[in-house]
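It would be a great kindness if you could assist me with a short task in structural biology. I am sending you one protein, given as its amino acid sequence and as whole-number tokens for its backbone shapes. I would ask you to consider whether the tokens describe a fold that such a sequence might reasonably adopt. The full record is reproduced below for your convenience.
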Amino acid sequence: MVRAPRRQYAALHAAGAGRGGARRVTAQSGRCEMADAPAEHIVVVDDDTALLALLKRQLQRAGFEVHAFDSGPPALEIVPGLGSCLVVADWNMPGMDGLQLCRAVRELEAMQAIHQVYFILLTAHDRKEQIIEGLAA
């Protein structure tokens, strides 16, 4: 078992769960325990319907409440009502791409219109400039 330093235990709270709630690592025991928290929200955005369905199904099986969209604008509409959440978005989509969605979410955060949102961009981009652009968003 790999142990994280004590200060990182709180950050491990949203590690996912079975259908009963979220898992967390407690500072006292260093073990992963079930919490009575409701399922965490994950917003998945991808124009590939097969991949979207696969991600949605797997995340739901892990106990998350999943909101799936095939484009950025409807995802951007729902994010403010979810509180803190995770957005998993494809970088390359027609219309609003994942990078534009990420920037729009960050603008809402800057205006304090929403809580903190974590963002994962799915991409095959591998050039240094593209990686920097994604991290800067």
